[in-house]
Known about the structure:
The complex is a heterodimer.
Chain A: E1 3-5, E2 10-14, E3 19-21, E4 24-26, E5 33-39, E6 46-52, E7 60-61, E8 64-69, E9 74-79, E10 88-98, E11 101-106, E12 110-115
Chain B: E1 4-6, E2 10-13, E3 19-25, E4 31-38, E5 42-51, E6 54-57, E7 64-70, E8 73-78, E9 87-94, E10 103-104, E11 108-112
Parallel strand pairs in B: 2-11
Antiparallel strand pairs in B: 1-3, 3-8, 4-5, 4-9, 5-6, 7-8, 9-10, 9-11
Amino acid sequence: AQTVTQSQPEMSVQEAETVTLSCTYDTSESDYYLFWYKQPPSRQMILVIRQEAYKQQNATENRFSVNFQKAAKSFSLKISDSQLGDAAMYFCAYRVRRRGSEKLVFGKGTKLTVNP
Amino acid sequence: DVKVTQSSRYLVKRTGEKVFLECVQDMDHENMFWYRQDPGLGLRLIYFSYDVKMKEKGDIPEGYSVSREKKERFSLILESASTNQTSMYLCASSFQGGLAEAFFGQGTRLTVV
């Protein structure tokens, strides 16, 4: 079974500083996809960034970037120039396609606090 | 805008009742998912579907069933609700294709008393 592990239940960062959230995953598949989702206190989950396992280049979306280490099965999220609006639960997710179906599995989440 | 709508925001049911949670998406997505979210446990996959009448068990299917009779609608059924099914339930949908973004509903807070 595929599993996603987020080892940091909570993290905090000062406004304008940089923070890195950790994620590791366990899989025997060679073709899969990785995501970071954000859930602000209002509860609507939204996509932050995504990465295809076949691509070596790390994905970047404005202040958000990932460090994808395929051999280590690690997919960490770096938030630069943190803003108060970045405060949320962050979930790492793994998606794999098998026999027509696509399973999307999430980790337990990391609660990020941004201090002014 | 993509919209994933869950029928209720809050629901209170009695132990032993049959409970239906409805989810409707308006983007013609093939994939639909049901998760439950509990503090400290993250999102756990209950069931998912990649086509009408097709369903697959997720990681915690016990005590639940699903129905997908139409492409836009995915229902989660608690055959006999129990107190340990008190939780936040999230529905999501996406196109097929590995990098496709999943869109989430606003969630249903179910309390079983």
